[in-house]
Amino acid sequence: MLTRQSIADGLRALGLASGDRVLVHSSIAALGTIEGGPDAVIDALLDVAGPEGLVAVPTFVCSPPFDRKTSRTALGAIADTFWRRAEALRSLHPTHSLAAIGRGAEELLHGHEKAPTAYGEGTPYHTLAMNGGKVLLMGVDQDRNTTLHTAEALVNAPYLGTVEAAYVDDSGETVTLTVPLMAGPHRDFIGLDRAFRESGLMRVGKIGSAVCRLMDGRRMIEVAVEKLRQDPAAVLCDNPACGDCRKQRGQIKAARLAAEGFTLSALAEDIADDPERAAAILSDEGIRDVEISGEAFIRRRGSFEKAGLRIAAIRDTLANAEAVEAARKAGIPLIAAVSTEDEFRAAAVAAAQGTPVLVENCGAPSGMYEEWYANEPAAPGLAFNPGAFAEEGENPFLKVFYRGLLRKKLRHFYVDDRTSDGTPALPGRGNGEVKEILSMLRCRSYGGVVTLRAPQAGPEAFRETAAAFWKLLDEM
Question: For residue range 248-265, what is the model confidence (pLDDT) as tens digits?
Answer without folding.
Answer: 999 999 999 999 999 999
